[in-house]
Amino acid sequence: MTILVLGLLLFLGAHSVRIVADAWRSHMMARIGEKPWKGLYSLVSIAGFVLIVIGFGQARLDSPALWHAPLALRHLTALLVLVALVLVFAAKGPNNAIRSRLHHPMVLGVKLWAFAHLLVNGRVVDVVLFGGFLLWAMADFRSARQRDRAQQTAYPPGSLGASAIPVILGGAVWALFVFWAHRAWIGVSPLGF
After folding, report:
1. 9-39 pLDDT, tens per residue?
2. Residue 16: phi, psi to the nearest 5?
3. Which of 103, 109, 175, 183 could disulfide-link 189, Cβ–Cβ 3.0 to 4.6 Å?
């Protein structure tokens, strides 16, 4: 579990700098330059992600269960993850109404993904992993909304046509994960088949 926690601290810590030290982040970017800052940020994030994968893989082998979810929740979780993936794709899609309306759909997508996984995964290791991401996403969303208000950020209206792209991409990636990748990479079939 130590490796998982270290990975979460590195990955979520790197992604939390703007939450807890936005002025310091801006100062460092100005001091060393945007590209070196992004390079350092990426290296720390990748190292954290690798440790999360290794740590979760090791810790899940003998992690005690806190609860056992009913099988019916698998379908609700799958639906919530579909919405989460659409939100993640909407974060980068230009001129889409989802981003225009929600402002920070990627963080909302992470929040929904983590919550959905907590519904059906009740081991200690799951609570650490998905609970960590859920708490981070909640804090990040709140921080981003506060920055928007302070900077009076205005989001241009999006078009319905541009909104179809994240829906299609999110749906395609969801189908790939549900019907193949989740079982192949993680060893668990989300819908049990």
Report:
1. 999 999 999 999 888 998 999 999 999 999 9
2. -105, -5
3. 183
